[in-house]
Amino acid sequence: MDLVGACRAFVAVSDHGGFTDGAAAAGVSQPVASRRVAALEERLGEPLFERSVRRAVLTPFGREMLPHARRLVEDADGLLHEAAAARRRPWKLAVPETCTTGGLARLVARARGLGMLLDPRPARPARRGELLLARRVRAALLAVPEQEAAWPVPLGLAAARDPGVRRVHLETLRLGRTARGPARRVWLQPEDDVPHVRDPLAQLRDAVGLRPAQLALAPDTTTAVAEILAAPDLLLCSAAQACHLGLHWRPLGEYTPVRGYLLGLAADSGPEPPLSRLGEEIGACVGASTPGDPADERDGG
């Protein structure tokens, strides 16, 4: 038996003094309201209305049960209202600044199709963790090492002009003793200013004999790309980002740096299921590789 529906019919019939008007107020037909009240009476074990009169007159038992039934209906309506409000409350999600507008738009649209209002908040890696810890967002794409990542993003080097090789070896940037002019640099974006990306690259720089300044951290992506376009420098990025920026991308010859992302949830964020169904769209947003499209076979640009 639908206890809430039966109580709703009982309260409506009582409030309107009859089954016809009460059924209309409850949004059901008169026969349905009658069946629901009869089922409730059977469940409770006593009549709720006098059957010997034309109007819906409560029995003493009905008068005693009415406040409880009304409270149950009000609680059910309150629950439905809160559920609707929770669905309308935006899911604030901290995302990398490298996510494109198109990628975020597709993510938001897909979430909306799942009944979820997503509010992406672009931020740098450390800031995303801070926002999640402070519960200023309900979830965040956290930067983690490859072995911990749900979405690994292989990185390589991108240039304004086609490098003419399938891979770029960092050692080819080393200046000879008689070389003149500025050394070519590899620019890191703020998104890659994390130990698991930055530190191995710095170790490789030192191992192949590059100058310290040849690995540079840009204040933002726009500045980094401007340096690539103005000089024969290189940008550490994903193949997807290089394509978006109109740059020529190649894998790094010595090893493959990887950005890693893991979905972190605030302690009071509620259930995860809607976000867990957005894995493909989240992967596309961060530039993760897809099966059958290995990073070392992409040519970019």
UniProtKB/TrEMBL annotation:
Domain of life: Bacteria
GO-annotated molecular function: DNA-binding transcription factor activity; transcription cis-regulatory region binding
Domain (HTH lysR-type): residue spans on this chain: 1-59
InterPro entries, alphabetized: LysR_HTH_N, WH-like_DNA-bd_sf, WH_DNA-bd_sf
Keywords on record: DNA-binding, Transcription, Transcription regulation
Similarity section: Belongs to the LysR transcriptional regulatory family.
PANTHER family: HTH-TYPE TRANSCRIPTIONAL REGULATOR (PTHR30126), HTH-TYPE TRANSCRIPTIONAL REGULATOR CYSL (PTHR30126:SF39)
Protein name: LysR family transcriptional regulator
Origin species: Streptomyces solincola
Phylogenetic classification of the source organism: Bacteria, Bacillati, Actinomycetota, Actinomycetes, Kitasatosporales
